[in-house]
Write a sequence for this structure.
């Protein structure tokens, strides 16, 4: 850890109001510079040395984080325009230190004082019934970047990264559009799986067996229908490959399903109180983002809607460049882009959405997805954000710009 300390004294002629304004601006720093940890600011109460009137202390994980803060344009502007004109004297000390083992233990025990029921670890796959299996496979290969691992006339498995599969397709010629029928989540171990199963039973839901083929890709597990009838499969030790597919432009992870539901409150209760998902943020009256133990900002989203359907599946690509290359492919082939480049504020991801109803839900391809730190994961308080397009896409200029979603 790096601790950065700043002791300072205002010039005598600086008025109280101006001093308070500078102190208030310093207090906004931890929100502006996300790498800051344990920020504090206070008045000097020492009776031995009153050279300085105030001190600020802040920590960073690495020296690079500290330097990034110090050399940020916004910080340099603050120093030039706000700080230097009012400060008579200052002393800065930055030093590296190793946290004492006893402090690490104490912090860990504080975090674990209220043991929390564990959520599933993270999303692994979606099962989609599609009217045209070969066409869907072509689409997912070319436009999403998945690799086919198994393929019969009845079904196909496609994978993004190491995990056995991210998408299972089922041939359903009787259907007119692709429909997502199940979502699969891995669970950390048998204890967590047993606890989840106990809560599912206690809440009055019926425990079902895993789909027959899925049983052979994991150690143990069970399935349950959520309040919408969507099958949720939970399992341990999902099989994985030794290396990722040899495809340059491909997703690195399937991050979340976005589920539209007519039973919003009931579904929220099911995922948070029965399956222990943690709320990350709410768009008031509309959507709740829920996270799992892999700490992605959301591994599932629920939207209050007049219909139930899995609205989209989100894949994280390796970079924004790869997102743009996939967008270029979609434009080139005339694949409908349901929502073009958006900058999601809550998950800090840039994405676009393709939608051809024959192939199932919208496919969201994003450049990254916010991952909470272990500490944030335990302490984050879900924000309530107004239903304003700028809370979904920070690149919207005004509250009424709903047009292009
Ligand atoms: Fe999404």
């Amino acid at each position: 850890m790096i601790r950065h300390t700043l002791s300072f004294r205002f010039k005598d002629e600086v008025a109280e109001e101006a001093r308070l304004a500078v102190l208030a601006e310093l207090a906004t720093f931890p929100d502006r510079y996300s790498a800051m940890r344990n920020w504090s600011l206070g008045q000097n109460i020492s009776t031995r040395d009153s050279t300085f009137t105030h001190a600020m202390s802040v920590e960073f994980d690495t020296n690079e984080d500290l330097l990034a803060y110090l050399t940020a344009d916004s910080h340099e502007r603050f120093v030039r325009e706000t700080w230097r004109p009012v400060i008579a004297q200052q002393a800065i000390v930055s030093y590296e230190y190793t946290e004492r083992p006893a402090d690490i233990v104490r912090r860990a025990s504080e975090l674990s004082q209220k043991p929390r029921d564990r959520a599933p670890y993270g999303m692994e796959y979606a099962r989609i019934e599609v009217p045209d299996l070969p066409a869907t496979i072509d689409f997912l290969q070319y436009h999403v970047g998945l690799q086919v691992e198994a393929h019969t006339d009845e079904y196909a498995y496609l994978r993004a990264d190491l995990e056995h599969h991210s998408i299972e397709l089922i041939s359903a010629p009787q259907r007119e559009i692709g429909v997502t029928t199940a979502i699969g989540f891995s669970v950390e171990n048998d204890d967590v799986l047993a606890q989840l199963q106990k809560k599912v039973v206690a809440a009055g839901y019926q425990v079902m067996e895993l789909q027959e083929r899925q049983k052979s890709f994991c150690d143990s597990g069970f399935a349950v229908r959520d309040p919408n009838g969507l099958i949720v499969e939970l399992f341990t030790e999902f099989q994985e490959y030794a290396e990722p597919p040899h495809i340059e432009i491909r997703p690195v992870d399937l991050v979340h399903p976005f589920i539209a539901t007519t039973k919003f409150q009931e579904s929220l209760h099911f995922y948070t109180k029965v399956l222990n998902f943690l709320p990350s943020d709410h768009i008031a009256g509309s959507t709740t983002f829920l996270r799992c133990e892999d700490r992605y900002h959301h591994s599932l989203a629920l939207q209050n809607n007049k219909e139930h359907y899995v609205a989209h599946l989100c894949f994280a690509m390796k970079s924004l460049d790869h997102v743009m290359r996939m967008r270029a492919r979609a434009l080139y082939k005339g694949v409908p882009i349901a929502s073009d480049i958006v900058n999601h504020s809550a998950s800090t991801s840039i994405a676009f959405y393709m939608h051809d109803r024959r192939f199932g839900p919208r496919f969201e391809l994003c450049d990254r997805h916010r991952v909470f730190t272990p500490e944030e994961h335990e302490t984050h308080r879900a924000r309530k954000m107004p239903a304003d397009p700028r809370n979904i896409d920070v690149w919207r200029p005004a509250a009424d710009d709903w047009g292009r979603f």
